[in-house]
Design goal:
Arc Repressor Mutant, subunit A, single chain, 181 residues, 8 helices
C-alpha cells in the first residue's frame, strides 16, 4: 500500500516517472475493459487515451484515500464508457476475442477461441448490469475484488456475491448451449 501511496503522490505532483509507470501498467487493462463495453477497437483506443488524459488533467485534485490508483482509473474509464453510450445511442459490440492478444496461437485455435468468446459475450448479455460490471472489471480489467469494490462503490462481500452469481449464471447458460449442440 505504501507503493500505491507513493505512486498516487507522484501522479498528483505530475511526476513523469509515476505517470509512465501507471500508463504502462494499466493501459492494456483499461483498453480491454473499454473494448468489451463498446465493441469497437478504434473507439476503445480513443476512450482509453481519454481516460489517461482526464486522469492527467485531474491529477492535481486527486486525493489519496487508501484506494488503489487502478480504482480511480477504472472509475474514469467507467464514466467514459457511459458518456460514449449516451453520445452514440447504439449498442452493437463486436466479439470479445478480437480484443485479446493472440500470443502466437495457430489460426485454428484462434478461430475456436473466437467462437467460444462470442458465446461468452452472448451469455453475458443476459446478466444483470451489475453482474456484467463485476465480470468485466475482474476478468477483462484484471482488477482484484477489493479494486472492483472501490470502483463500483460496493463492499468486497457484495462484489464476491455478484461475481459468484454471475459465474453461476454464465456456466448455466454456456452449459445449456453445449447441451443443445
Amino acid at each position: 500500500m505504501q507503493d500505491e501511496e507513493r505512486i498516487a503522490r507522484g501522479l498528483q505532483k505530475g511526476d513523469p516517472e509515476a505517470w509512465s509507470r501507471v500508463y504502462e501498467e494499466y493501459f492494456t487493462k483499461i483498453y480491454r475493459y473499454i473494448a468489451i463495453r463498446v465493441g469497437n477497437h478504434t473507439e476503445a483506443e480513443d476512450l482509453a487515451e481519454q481516460v489517461f488524459l482526464k486522469a492527467l488533467e485531474s491529477s492535481s485534485s486527486f486525493k489519496w484515500r487508501g484506494a488503489p490508483v487502478s480504482a480511480w482509473l477504472f472509475r474514469i474509464a467507467h464514466n467514459q464508457v457511459i458518456d460514449y453510450w449516451r453520445r452514440t445511442k447504439s449498442k452493437t459490440p463486436l466479439p470479445l476475442g478480437e480484443y485479446l492478444p493472440s500470443n502466437g496461437v495457430d489460426p485454428e485455435e484462434e478461430a475456436e477461441r473466437n467462437v467460444n468468446m462470442r458465446e461468452v459475450v452472448q451469455a453475458m448479455d443476459q446478466l444483470t448490469h451489475a453482474q456484467r460490471d463485476v465480470i468485466e472489471l475482474r476478468f477483462a480489467g484484471g482488477l482484484s475484488v477489493a479494486e472492483v469494490a472501490k470502483v463500483l462503490g460496493k463492499s468486497e462481500g457484495a462484489v464476491k456475491v455478484m461475481q459468484h452469481s454471475a459465474l453461476l449464471a454464465l456456466r448455466k447458460r454456456l452449459q445449456s448451449r453445449s447441451d443443445n449442440e
